[in-house]
Design brief:
The protein is about 75% helix and about 0% strand. The protein has helices at about 1-20, 25-45, 55-70, 75-90, 100-115, 120, 140-150, 155-170, 180-190, 200-255. Helix 8 (about 155-170) runs parallel beside helix 10.
């Protein structure tokens, strides 16, 4: 079924790329009717669906969505998350508890494993001019961020672990650790230190904390290095200005004599 869905999506996308006159609306309707809509319906089964809803959704992400993410990248990820947000907002009370957080975190984990930069989808705009969230709708970023936050307190340990991973381990290893990540780590460890979960879950959390601690160390060293470089540059500039000022005084004295 996953292969059939992949081939169908590829054919519809190819038809959309041709952009023949009069076909744009038809192709967009096909994409919505055959790919985007049904996938959202599969990802978010209602509480009246089969009991193991999260298992069903994870299978959809693994076998149907992941191959498409590898092929179409961040553009498809944005479409799927937006459709998920719209569907969840329309009837949030119909879904099994925690299922929205579970599915959003699973989608993001799978997307990151395919090489997609998920940072624009989960980093709320803090006023930084270098923020790369401008192309993503603020409502979508808020929905994804909220889903990850909810996932940190989800009943299922696998969802908590995935949400914790997404919250504190950024997509880029070189990204500096911020205060929000520090607070999230401390709170999560405090809440989950003696809060259920099997050995696999606890080992996974320990591994995430270990990776984050290494990034914290590297981030601190990087900040110290930048400060040292800036101080050195400032001292060199001050020395050069002082030397230049002394040379000007000497030239003035020679000219007067």
């Amino acid at each position: 079924a996953g292969e059939v869905f992949f081939q169908l999506a590829t054919m519809v996308k190819a038809a959309m790329a041709t952009k023949n006159d009069g076909d744009d609306n038809d192709n967009a309707l096909l994409w919505q009717s055959l790919i985007r809509g049904p996938m959202a319906a599969c990802l978010l089964p209602t509480s009246s669906a089969a009991g193991s809803s999260s298992t069903l959704c994870f299978s959809v992400v693994t076998h149907m969505l992941s191959p498409l993410l590898k092929k179409f990248g961040a553009a498809l990820l944005e479409e799927v998350l937006e459709e998920t947000r719209t569907t969840a907002s329309a009837s949030s009370s119909s879904f099994a508890p925690g299922i929205i957080a579970a599915i959003v975190t699973e989608i993001l984990v799978r997307a990151r494993s395919t090489g997609i930069n998920i940072a624009p989808f989960i980093e709320k705009d803090d006023g930084d001019n270098n923020s790369n969230t401008d192309s993503i709708r603020p409502e979508l970023v808020a929905f994804v961020y909220g889903s990850i936050t909810d996932g940190l307190h989800c009943y299922e340990s696998s969802t908590r672990s995935s949400a914790f991973n997404l919250a504190v381990l950024s997509n880029k290893i070189s990204s500096p650790v911020n205060a929000q990540q520090c607070q999230t780590v401390l709170q999560f460890v405090e809440e989950n230190l003696h809060n259920g979960g099997d050995t696999t879950y606890r080992n996974g959390v320990i591994a995430i904390v270990g990776k984050w601690c290494k990034r914290l160390k590297d981030s601190s060293l990087s900040i110290k290095s930048r400060k040292c470089i800036n101080n050195t540059n400032n001292n060199e500039s001050a020395g050069a200005d002082k030397k230049k000022g002394g040379n000007n005084k000497n030239k003035a004295a020679v000219a007067t004599s």
